[in-house]
Amino acid sequence: MVLQNLRKGASGLIAKVFLLVLTVSFVLWGISGVFTNYSTGTVAEIGGTQISTDAYRQQYLDQIQRIGRQAGRAITPDQARAFGFDRQVLNQMITEATLDEAARKLGLGMSDALIADSIRDNPALRPPGATAFDPAYFQQLLQANGLTEQRFLASERKRVLRQQLIESLGGARAPEVLKTAVHSFENEERAVSYLDVTSSSVPAPAAPTDEQLKAYYDGHKVVFRAPEYRKLTLLVLTPATLAPWIQISDADAKAAYDRNAARFGTPEQRDVQQIVFPSEADAKAALDKIKGGTSFADIAKARGLSDKDTNLGLVAKSAIIDPKVADAAFALPADGTSDPVQGRFGYALVHVTTIVPATVKPFAEVEAGLRRDLALERARRELLDKHDAIEDERSSGASLSETAQKLGLTPEVVDAVDRSGREPSGAEVTDIPDRVNVLSAAFSSRPGVDNDPIQLAQNGGYVWFDVNEVTPSRERPFDEVREQVASRWSEDEVVRAVEAKAKGLLTELEAGKSMADVASANGLEVKTASGLKRGRAEGDFTTEAVAKVFGVALNGYGVALGTANAEQLVFQVTKVESPPSANDIRIDNQLQQQVENDILQQYLTALQGQIGLTINQRAVQQAVGANQVN
């Protein structure tokens, strides 16, 4: 995270285009990459610049960990390769090296003074909230990332030169004819009439025979397999789990109650009225009339003020905005009127009609909750000490159960849980903190392994786990899953019946029958939907169904899946409307970015063709742990 702060200076549109190209530049492998099998210390070479295996491996691992944190779950090496992270990282490093070589061949340079100015002007390199560069804070950032000032300056010089090369490609604009076409495409709207075919539109399937169920089971055995289960011992350390073991003395509880008495009741409240006068003399004159027997309400009425203008309501002192008015109001007796008060808005007379005394709950009434709060507060302070004590016990070879017993904690045992967090009964296990990460780590471990704790992001704390037993996945026999097989068979039969019904209705419509006649003959209702736009779900139409609608010509028919599992929409496109092209900044920006992306990608491809690019695929596979190529 700290290193990301060091890089935040490269954020504008050009930098975003650059990053996008890095993620979609797989084409570089096929256009200008020549695969070789030279030294495994280098994964790629561009001109005279080499990308070392160690540098590539480190950047690849950093990328996996960063994405895992964002996704809230660990990314396995196989998943990372399947998602193409290895190619993304390598393409990024190749692109950077290509631009470095181009800058070197062009003789581009950047003075130390300009680099120093860019660092001083970068707000990401300043302390939070600071407006000026702080050399000491900058040195802390460098030390936290294991960088020297010279190494960082060299890295920044390369980054700035790369950005200058990219910015030199700017200036191209998307053609107006392209903008018009895209605006028309994006803003096109369609209306449809449709029949909603659901499970209620078809007869219920007849009860299946054993032969049908067994045949279905034989064809879908993988669906009914029992997943792998694991028995786990968990030691959860959070303020909430630690608090019950903390003793709060009577003296500490009473002292906390005395310090925070206002927290356990309601403050004094008063029904306050005020009249604001333009001068002190006017306020004194009004006060003399009140002393002479004129009511406060009559004074207000004579000045043309309503209750809304004068009444502040029943309020606590803290709720009155003007502190001088508040002090005056809470110094008066009931039915008392103040002397003129010079407040924020003029001279005021303050009148109090009702006083509601403050209330405080007795200590005995709030003691239990107060003790819990104090224990929780103390637990937060003691959490790290307890963490260290657990780690010390674990390092000495103690099991989680033995560690918990020695330190006065209670371990939790999960008898059987699968990777998705369910018990053999199918019930969801809900009491595992940060369940996704804990189960991901547990199913990547095995019995007898000493596992690192999982740090909890929410509320703070840690979860230690031991894998006690592993129950392998197994094929369940037919008799064990007969009810499940029957349920799935029935669901599939309904889906097939609905699909067949929808196809039959479509055939009738395409043969020339009207939708009203088809609907009437089948006990259905003709529904309509309008304003459908590409890529946007609307009512019964999912985004996939809307795509089907836009694949049919005006007055044409089609079938699409509905929102439910057994639901089909048989539709006719009744209107196609292309509103006049409007200025859509979002579309224009996307087009402009795509044009810049195309130019940048062509530039990179041309550079690599001129400079020369070779990729050591064996070293790449070794770096990411893939199978070796012989």
Task: Give the SSE layout.
Elements: H1 2-7, H2 13-24, H3 27-31, E1 33-36, E2 42-46, E3 49-52, H4 53-71, H5 77-82, H6 85-106, H7 112-120, H8 135-144, H9 149-167, H10 176-187, E4 189-198, H11 210-219, E5 229-237, H12 239-242, H13 250-259, E6 265-266, E7 269-277, H14 280-291, H15 296-302, H16 307-310, E8 311-316, H17 323-329, E9 336-337, E10 341-343, E11 346-356, E12 359-360, H18 363-395, H19 400-407, E13 412-417, H20 435-442, E14 454-455, E15 462-471, H21 482-510, H22 515-521, E16 526-532, H23 543-549, E17 557-561, E18 567-577, H24 585-611, E19 613-616, H25 617-624
Helix pairs in contact: 2-6, 2-24, 4-6, 4-25, 6-9, 6-24, 11-21, 13-18, 18-19
The biggest sheet, with number of strands, parallel, antiparallel or mixed sense and barrel status, is: 5 strands, antiparallel
Compute the separation of the termini in Å. Answer: 39 Å
Instruction: Label the structural class.
Output: alpha+beta
Helix content: 40-55%
Q: Tell me what portion of residues adopts beta-strand conformation.
A: 15-25%
Using DSSP, what is the number of strands?
19
Would you identify the regions where 5 or more consecutive residues have pLDDT less than 50? 1-39
Shape: extended
User: In DSSP terms, counting alpha (H) and pi (I) runs of 4 or more, how many helices?
Assistant: 25
Mean pLDDT: 84
Q: How large is the radius of gyration?
A: 37 Å
